[in-house]
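Board notes (copied after class):
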Amino acid sequence: MANVRIMLEEREHQMLSEFAAFSDASKGRKQPEKQCDIRPDFQRDRDRIIHSKSFRRLKDKTQVFLTPEGDHYRTRLTHTLEVSQIARSVARALRLNEDLTEAIALGHDLGHTPFGHAGERALDRVCPAGFKHQEQSIRVVELHEKDGRGLNLTWEVLDGIVNHQTAGKPATLEGAVVRLADKIAYVNHDIDDAIRGKIIREEELPKDLTDILGHSLKERLNTLVHDIVSNSYEKPEIVMSPEVSEAMYALRKYMFASVYTNPVAKGQEHKAEHMIEQLYEYYRKRPELLPEEYRLLWEERGEETDRVVADYIAGMTDKYAVTRFSDIMIPKAWGVY
């Protein structure tokens, strides 16, 4: 049988834009390994992320709303999938490398804490080295997956993951697509969730912005994706028109004022932050109680104890963090009466 991977790599050169990242031109992996005879490297990375434990845990991690009443609110996993869908649509239209785009999108939040950004803020306060979820995502794929061996992802995927924040500067156009897709996804699905939770109404969104972006979730996504494609097609950069870009970031600013700091939506976050801080202090003083895979990081690999404790807590799901806090901090009944 012919080497399918080579055939697919050749097809990339025939079909993709000259500005795309090509699988056979990757800067490679930190640990050299034999290539797959079926899958190009970026597709292989995508598969590794999907099959990882940290990816599965995203389904039980908060996106924005803590313990919402209803099954239709986004989680960190559904956010990730929506980012992937938007990014792939843009990448396909621009003839960029869809496998690389998807791998970055699926991996960009693997290091996120339980309880969303509330958990991130808490760990950033108590951990001496600070805490940023994009940097934690790299630790997850390099140190924690596969019993400490890591996923050994390609340089391009790692670069896209660590640079997906607003201040990031991805080295590939695929990474730049994910960086914008992340913002498009969370601004719009957070509006959708906030409307579902009766925190805001569609009619309350600033009319000058919705007149530009659209008056529904579908219209806004359509406007933003089309704007990126039309302004980036056959160009060595990923850009939006000034009008649409300014409107999107203004809508994001509105969400920070109306939803992300809204006491109705965020009234329970101080409790979540308190839980994270208490768990951190408990394990920092008792690192010998950490699970074995984490103890080995500071006992054998020389990692700082503070950082390893943060690793353990960041990897928790919301439910597991509540369970551990309850087991440690809340007295148990003496017996059944």
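Comment from the instructor: The mean pLDDT is 93. The two ends are 71 Å apart (CA to CA).
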